[in-house]
Give the backbone structure.
Amino acid sequence: MNTNILAKFPKNVLEMSTDERMKFLDSFDIVFSDVDGVIWDIMPPGPIPGVSEGIEFLQSKGKKVVYVTNNSLRPIKENIKRFHEYGIPVKEDDIVHPAQSIVELLKQIKFTGLIYCLASTSFKDHLRNAGFELMDGPIILDETFTELVRVLFDNHPVKAVIMDIDFTISAVKLMKAHIYLKKDSECLLIGGAADPLGYFANHEIIGNGPFINLVENSSKVEAKVLGKPGLELIKFLKSKYGIEQSQRALFVGDSPCSDVKFGKISGFQTMAVLTGGAKLSDLKKCLDDESPDFYINSLADFKGFL
């Protein structure tokens, strides 16, 4: 795919004729939806008006709706509580969360051993509650090479390095991850959220993806990434939800570089919403691999779709 070419501008589904809307609805069986900026706002926190009715319409047409979040700062139970508060019925199996996806992978491969984990407290609690042994990243206070050497080199038998959102990420933590991966050729590198960029309080910020890429490049170990836009997550979703025809799934999100790109490499149909990070002007600038097939102002627009 040539990412140096601007893609054709995506279709606004609200500008389709009634027949086109019917064909669009008939073209997918399952909807994978991002959460923050699509279902609810982060700042200030609250439901996006009308989204619950839009989801109810999709479900009334026989569509299964699954929520795929990269936000591991919010535990799954807290997600479920918020969905219910906003009038959206949901079960734990309807939420795909980086920490839970990684737990399922570790159990599937029968992983045992010490994990060096760069992630939030919520993420690490989830892994510990699942029975895994974790070691946190160091915080270096004395900025000397003597202290650096003392912190970096140890004999801990680390068998996996896991990286997710970590607000205290540092050069020392990344160096230590590199050392564990180079010391043991069987040490795994596993990633959660891998957004190249994030959106917070109307500002663009660096996502977790560049940090995972840095460690991959330095250690020459390929990461198994179970957050958007990771390839391992594609296998996970297709297996978990029995997807045999990729084009029969629709991926909805507000981030071209994370949600749309992930949907594209998965072979899913893609649709951007304008309630979060992406604006209409951003979609016009998208390159081919980040340009959605369709766009809509909000999931709320589905409540009057036909």
Remarks:
- The chain has two domains: 11-70+230-304, 108-225.
- Residues 37 and 275 are 6 Å apart (CA to CA).
- The first helix runs from residue 18 to 26.
